[in-house]
Backbone:
């Protein structure tokens, strides 16, 4: 098991956040968190990455307690959550080299490889401040891939990307999964999840309303979007505050 969440809750003072979230991820699986803005997707990902403290629940990464042994657990992860944290006045290559210092096994060839994967190698000597939003997103994706992580966490990775960029993100996700990584990806676009995920979880109002294998979903529904609509409808009928 690469990732396991058991009854994880993180609520903010305004009552928003994520509540009672449970799921597991095996090597090669891609779980898509599907939901609108404010549904709890980013909160869940931040909790896994150790960027926020949870109120309750358990998180394990590669069998390691990610709450009490955070530094040890996150060695197995690569993350792109919200906007990538980049040094504006340095080059793309320098940003990758600075990130590589945290991993003893990452060398210059690894940096070049991930830059090629996200089609940013030709821009490696450009300063970050000159890059478009989509190009910055690609650099952030390269940083997340840098250590060949066992767990890859991508929060709205297609944000700011054009059609070609979105296709590239799908290919990167599928390649990471084929290489044995477990991938957790969020999106508010049902089609994006349908195109790259092996499993989908519907999030709405801070709750996980449904989770299933994409293959099973598409045997019962014409699309992941219809699965989402059905889950939200059933959530309302069941009394969820969504």
Residues:
């Amino acid at each position: 098991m690469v990732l396991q969440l058991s009854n994880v809750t993180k609520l903010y003072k305004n009552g928003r956040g994520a509540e009672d979230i449970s799921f597991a991820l095996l090597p090669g699986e891609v779980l898509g968190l599907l939901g609108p803005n404010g549904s709890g997707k980013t909160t869940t990902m931040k909790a896994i990455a150790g960027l926020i403290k949870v109120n309750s629940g358990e998180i394990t990464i590669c069998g390691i307690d990610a709450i009490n042994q955070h530094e040890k657990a996150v060695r197995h992860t690569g993350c792109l959550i919200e906007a990538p944290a980049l040094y504006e006045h340095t080059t793309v290559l320098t940003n990758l080299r600075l990130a590589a210092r945290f991993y003893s096994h990452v060398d210059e060839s690894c940096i070049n490889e991930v830059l090629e994967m996200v089609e940013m190698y030709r821009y490696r000597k450009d300063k970050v401040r000159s890059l478009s939003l989509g190009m910055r997103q690609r650099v952030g994706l390269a940083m997340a891939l840098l250590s060949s992580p066992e767990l890859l966490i991508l929060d709205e990775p297609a944000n700011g990307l054009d059609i070609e960029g979105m296709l590239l993100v799908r290919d990167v996700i599928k390649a990471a999964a084929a290489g044995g990584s477990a991938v957790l990806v969020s999106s508010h676009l049902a089609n994006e999840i349908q195109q790259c995920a092996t499993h989908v979880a519907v999030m709405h109002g801070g709750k996980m309303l449904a989770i299933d294998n994409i293959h099973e979903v598409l045997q019962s529904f014409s699309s992941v979007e219809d699965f989402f609509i059905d889950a939200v409808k059933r959530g309302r009928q069941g009394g969820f505050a969504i």
Notes: The longest strand covers residues 3-11. Residues 7 and 130 are 43 Å apart (CA to CA). The mean pLDDT is 94.
